[in-house]
C-alpha cells in the first residue's frame, strides 16, 4: 500500500516528463500545425471586386493568369537540375574515388569548395566572374566586342550556377557509398573478363542506386525551392515570387497574400509526394551480396590512353570551374575598389581595407564641386551594417541551433524509453513534420499567422512587429532544423549500450541522473557536430531571412546581397564589391573551420586521437633533443 502511494507521488522525473509533453504539444500545434492550416484556409477566404467572399477566386486567377509560369519554371529547373547535377556529381566521385586520376586529392579539395560557401555567397562569387561587369565577361567582351554582356542571367545562368553548387551532397553521401563497396565483387567481375567500364556499369553503379535515388529527390526539391540563384540572376521561379507577394498589398495587385499561400501549398504538395515516393522506395530494401571478409575498394586504372587523357582533361576542367571563383574572390578581396570595379588585377594595389579600417572618399557632385564623404570606404569589420548583420546572424543562428539540439536530445531520450509505445512514435513523426513542407511555406505561414495582436497562443503579441521578429526567426530556424537534427542525433542513441543503463539503474540512479551522467556524455560529440552543421547552414541562410525582411532583422546574407545595390550611390559604400569579396572569404573561413572540427577532428575515434598525440610528443621530444645536442 505504501509502495503504491509512493509511486503516485509527483517525482522530479514525472514532473519533467509532464512539462516536456506539454511543451512538445505546444510546439507542434502552435508553431507547426496551426500556422500552416491558416495559410491553407487563407486561399479560400478571398473576396472579389464586389467585396463578396469567393472561395475559388485565387484558383481561377491561377488558371487564367500568369501564375502558372512560376510553377512551370520551377519544375523545368528542377528536372534539368536532376540531370546536370547527377552527371557532374557522379563524375566527380568517380574521378576522385573510383578511377586512378593523377592529383585526385587536390581535385577533391577543389570539388568540395561548395561545402564552405553556398547560397548568396556562392551566387555572388559566380556573378563576380560572369555578370555583365564580371572578370571573365569583361575579358570576353574585349576579345569579342559584339558579345552580349548580359549572357549570364536568367534560366541558363541559374542552371549553370546550381549545377555546380548542388554537387556537395554527392561529395558527401555518394562518396561514402562508393568507398563502402566490396572490392571482392569488382575483382570477381574483372576475373570473368569484364573491362573497367563494364564493371562500373554492371557492378558498381547498381549498388549506388539507393543513394542516387535519395540524392535525386534532394536535388529535385532543391531546384523546386530555389531562392538565392533565381533572385540574384533574374529567373521567375516560385520562391522569389512568394517572397515578393508576401511583401505586397491589395492596393498594388489582386489578393497577393492568397496567391503567395497558393504557391506555397503547391510547393508543399510536390514535396510531400516526393518524400512519400522516397519512403516507399526505401521500405522495399536493397541488398548486396558480399563476401564475409570485405575488401577495401582499390582505384581502377584507365587502360585506354585516349580515354585516360580525356578523363584527366575533364577532371581538371571541372577543377578550374570550381576553383576559379574561390581564387578570384580571395585575391580581389585584397584589392582596392578601383581595381575591383575595373576587374583588373593590380599587384601594386594590395590592401586590407576590405577587411578592416576606414578611409574617406572624395567625389565630384552634379554641381561640379568636390565633396568628401567620411568613412565611405570601410572594411567588413569596420562597417556598421555588415558588422551588425554578422552579430545578428551569429546570435540567431547559435540560439536556434542550440535550441534544436536540446529539443531533439530530450525527445530522442523519450523515444528510446518508449520504443514500443505509440507516444514515442507520435513524437518522432511530429518532429519530422517540417520535412513535409518547404521552408518558404513555414516562414510565410509564420509571417502571416503571427502578424497579429489576436494570436492567443503567444499571449496576444505581434511577433512580426519591431524586434519581436527576431524571436520569430529563431522559432522558424529551430523548427526547420528539427528533422535533420532528429535523424542525426537519433543515430547516435543506437551506440549507447543498454547494459550501461542497467548498471546505473542497479546502483540506484534515477532516469534523469542516468541520462545526464551516462547517456549525454556518450552522445555529446554527435550533438556538438549537429549543432555545428546547423549553425553553419543558418549563419549564411538567405531564404528565411528574405521572408522575414525587416529593419530589425537584416541578416548577414541580406547585407551581402544589398552591398552592391547601393555601391557608390551619393558617395556611400564605395568599396561594396570589395567588402562583398571579403565577406565571402570570411564565410569560407568560418564554414571551413566548422567542417574541419566536425569531419576532421570530430570524426576521429579514440585510437586515432591517441596516435596523433603520440606522434606530436615524438616530434616534440625529437625537436627538443636536437636543440639540446646543438647547445651541448
| Low-confidence runs of at least 5 consecutive residues | 1-6, 286-293, 627-632
| Series of H and E elements | HHHHHHHHHHHHHHHHHEEHHHHHHHHHH
Largest sheet: 2 strands, antiparallel
Total count of strands:
2
Please state the CA-atom Rg, rounded to the nearest Å.
Answer: 28 Å
Distance between the termini: 83 Å
Instruction: Categorize the overall geometry.
Output: globular
Hey, roughly how much beta strand do the residues contain?
under 5%
Helix content: 55-70%
Number of helix segments? 27
Average pLDDT level: 80
The chain-level structural class is mainly alpha
Order of strands side by side in the largest beta sheet? 1-2
Overview of the molecule:
The protein is mainly α and 632 residues long. It has helices at 2-8, 12-42, 57-64, 67-98, 104-111, 119-130, 135-143, 154-165, 168-179, 183-191, 196-207, 209-224, 228-233, 238-246, 256-284, 305-332, 337-342, 384-417, 422-432, 439-449, 468-493, 498-506, 511-539, 543-547, 556-563, 576-601, 606-631; strands at residues 358-364, 370-378. Strands 1-2 form a two-stranded antiparallel ribbon. The protein is globular, with a radius of gyration of 28 Å. The termini are far apart.
SSE order and pairing:
Layout: H1 2-8, H2 12-42, H3 57-64, H4 67-98, H5 104-111, H6 119-130, H7 135-143, H8 154-165, H9 168-179, H10 183-191, H11 196-207, H12 209-224, H13 228-233, H14 238-246, H15 256-284, H16 305-332, H17 337-342, E1 358-364, E2 370-378, H18 384-417, H19 422-432, H20 439-449, H21 468-493, H22 498-506, H23 511-539, H24 543-547, H25 556-563, H26 576-601, H27 606-631
Antiparallel strand pairs: 1-2
Helix pairs in contact: 2-20, 4-5, 4-8, 4-9, 4-12, 6-16, 6-25, 6-26, 10-11, 12-15, 14-15, 14-20, 15-20, 16-26, 18-19, 18-21, 18-23, 18-25, 20-21, 21-23, 22-23, 23-26
